[in-house]
Design goal:
alpha/beta; Hypothetical Protein Ychn, Chain: A; five-stranded parallel beta sheet; 3 helices
């Protein structure tokens, strides 16, 4: 399953709790703030190695976030990568 998260707090926490092996979580819009390696976004630190976490790079850059300040396990996608990720996963769940 692909979880697409566009807000940070409760929606992300719920997706992380539900994610299981081979699932993926994609952070878009304001949810990319959760990629920052700070205590407030520690929910991503608890994601297992079997769940891939992605962030949409245009949203990262638009918010002035640098990759160096983010968790190391985050993978970054452009819009083409976003489309490819959607094509690879079924079902898809948007978390708002």
């Amino acid at each position: 399953m692909l979880y697409i998260v566009n807000k940070k707090a409760e929606a992300l926490t719920n997706c992380v709790a539900r994610a299981s092996a081979n699932d993926a979580i994609l952070l878009i819009e304001n949810a990319v703030f959760a990629a920052l390696a700070i205590e407030q976004s520690s929910v991503l630190a608890s994601v297992g190695d079997d769940v891939a976490v992605y962030a949409l790079m245009p949203d990262i850059l638009a918010r002035g976030i640098t990759v160096e300040r983010c968790y190391e396990h985050i993978q970054y996608l452009d819009y083409a990568g976003f489309v490819a990720l959607v094509e690879q996963h079924n079902p898809i769940r948007s978390c708002f």
